[in-house]
Amino acid sequence: MNPALGARCFLLLSFTGPMTSFATIPLDTTTSATPLSYLSDGGLYTDTMAMFTGRISGTIGETSVIAILIGAIFLIAMGIIDLRIPGTYILTFAIFVILFGGHLTTGDMVPFVVQELCGGGLMLGAFFMATDYVTSPITPKGKIIYGVICGCLLGIFRLFGSSAEGCSYSIIFANMLVPLIERFTVPKPFGKGGEK
Question: For the CA atoms of 107, 113, 119, 123, what is the dihedral angle to 10 degrees?
C-alpha cells in the first residue's frame, strides 16, 4: 500500500484523539465545521468558489483544488502520471454521488456534486496518491478498474460511513487489490508461443 497513506491511516486508527483534536495546539486559529461535514449533514457549504480556490480552512493539500489541478496538469504534460487512474476515480465518485447522494430529485444536485468533488482529499488523492507507481496497476485496463474501485469505495465511505472523509482508506483498500487486478488484466501475447 502507499506508505504515506498507510502511516496516516495507522496513526489515525491507533491515536484517534491526538490525530483529530487540535485544541491543545497554542495557535491563533478558528475552529469551524469543514465543508465535508456540512455535506455529510445533508446541507451545502456556503461558498463553492472558496472551496475551489482554497479560501477555506483545512489541512494542507485539501483546500485549493486549483493548485492541485495545476500540479496535476504539469505531471500529465510531463508524462509522469497517466490520466486513466485519476480520471476514472473522479468520474466514478461523481456518478456514485449523483446516484446515491440523495440529491437526484432536488434542485441542488449540481452544487452538491461539485462540492463533494472539491471537498476533502479527493483531488490530492486522485492525482498524487492513487497514481503512485509502486502501489497502482501498470496495465491500461487495470488502471481503469483500479480507479473505479477507488471511486466506489470513496462514495461508500463518504456517503454511508461515519466520517465525512475516506479518500485515504479507499486508496489503501484498492492498493490491496492491485495484485489481483494485475493478474486478470495482463495482456495476452500474440504470435508464436502464445495461448493455444
Answer: -160
Is residue 45 within 8 Å of residue 103, measured between CB atoms?
no
If phi over 0 gives left and psi between -120 and 50 gives alpha, with beta otherwise, what is residue 32? beta
Residue 44 neighbours by CB distance under 10 Å: 16
pLDDT per position as a tens digit, 99-143? 998 776 677 888 888 888 988 889 999 999 999 999 999 999 999
Query: By CB neighbour count within 10 A (0-12 exposed, 13-18 middle, 19+ buried), where does 76 fall?
Result: middle
Q: How many CB atoms lie within 10 A of CB 109?
A: 15
**CA geometry: angle at 53 spanning 47 and 54, to 5°?**
85
The whole-angstrom separation of Cα 72 and Cα 177 is 25
CA distances, 110 to each of 12, 54, 165 (Å): 32, 20, 20
Taking residue 120's Cβ as centre, other Cβ atoms within 10 Å add up to: 27
Cα-to-chain-centroid distance, residue 110: 19
